Amino acid sequence: MGPVPIFLEDVIAGLSRPQKALPPKYFYDAAGSKLFERICRLPEYYVTRAELALTRANIGAIARFAGRGCALIEYGSGESLKTRLLIRALRPAAYLPIDISEPALQRAALKLERAFPWLEIVPVNGDFSRPLALPAPRGLAKRVVYFPGSTIGNLTPGEAHAFLRMTRGQVGPKGAMLVGVDLKKDPEVLHAAYNDSRGVTAAFNLNLLGRINRELGADFDLRRWRHYAFYNAPLGRIEMHLASLEAQIVNVGNYRFAFARGETIHTENSYKYSVEEFRALAARAGFTAEKLWMDRKGLFALHGLKAA
Ligand SMILES: C[S@@+](CC[C@H](N)C(=O)[O-])C[C@H]1O[C@@H](n2cnc3c(N)ncnc32)[C@H](O)[C@@H]1O
User: Fold this and answer.
1) For residue 58, what is the enclosing H or E element?
2) How buried is residue 174: exposed, middle or buried, by Cβ count under 10 Å (0-12/13-18/19+)?
3) Is residue 138 over pLDDT 70?
4) Does residue 38 sit in helix, strand or coil?
5) Which atom of ligand 1 is nearest to the CA of 74?
6) Nearest to 77 by CA among 40, 109, 35
7) What is the pLDDT, as a whole number, of residue 41?
């Protein structure tokens, strides 16, 4: 659970905007992290399978690029699934998983401790959208930042730029970064991935309102809201919204918000980048895109970045 005053402030600010919106980082409480793990296993959600497959197929080259014995820093580590492949191949001196979801972070760290007893694991429960002081791992190991799962797509291009500049500072002139980026593709494939037939993505989206009820004492009636996700082609992003099924008033703390029938709360973006678009973004933040690994169907890209 994050500090309540900041969560409340962010919710009030987001619901006070002309297009009501909530920051996607609040999806990830204990229930939200578990739902996200289920999304990763859905038949329609190609993202995790494609990234796992390309990582497995290219693990030797990825390890040569990143270098053995580094300090491996992962942002938005969640269940650290793909990271297991990297840990085996890189034998890092230390692993620093960073996640806003304390339950997901602790669960992953426990499992990793059992699987890799030789590894120094330093979990950091923090928010990467704010300045974050990282504990210094022992020794002078080279730093490699890992940012898989297309989490970078959840940031606006401006936020992604600021994030890459921050990590560029963290890895220094000799460090490297591995970023998993979802590629532009057939909108039907994208649409299916965010509108799965089992309704797990809908439950994940709606859990945000449930969390606001649980932690901030709000009175959202979840039966009056529907998950709504579509591909916005001009902006190159999936947008997730929650649509109000009728005119209604919702109380959050001492605040009241009126929703018209059909009005939406914008809850998440997932930007899709062509290889060239992502390389240009990385270059503006001081990185050279040296390596590129893709799955066989060309669904997903893992970029190997070095300091420019
Ligand atoms: C799209 S999921 C990806 C999870 C995992 N890395 C993967 O590849 O499947 C995003 C992850 O980032 C975490 N996260 C989202 N926003 C964050 C923030 N502002 N600071 C830290 N972690 C964040 C979530 O808790 C979640 O584990």
Assistant:
1) none
2) exposed
3) no
4) helix
5) 6
6) 109
7) 98
Q: 236 alpha carbon to ligand 1 midpoint, in Å?
A: 21
* pLDDT tens column, 86-108: 999 999 999 999 999 999 999 99
Give the CA angle between residues 265, 267, 273 to the nearest 5°.
130
Which protein residue has the closest C-alpha to ligand 1 atom 6? 77
CA 249/CA 266 separation, integer angstroms: 17
Q: Which residues line ligand 1 (CB under 6 A)?
A: 25, 28, 33, 36, 40, 48, 76-78, 82, 98-101, 104, 127-129, 148-149, 151
Tokens 């390389």 appear where?
Answer: 279
The helix/strand/coil state of 95 is strand
Rounded to a whole number of angstroms, the distance between the first and last alpha carbons of the chain is: 38
| Residues 113, 217: Cα–Cα separation, whole Å | 37
The model's pTM is 0.97
Q: Averaged over 54-60, what is the pLDDT?
A: 98
Radius of gyration of the chain (CA): 19
Residue 133: per-residue pLDDT: 85
Q: Give Cα 1 to chain centroid, integer Å.
A: 17
pLDDT, one tens digit per residue, over 221-279 is 999 999 999 999 999 999 999 999 999 999 999 999 999 999 999 999 999 999 999 99
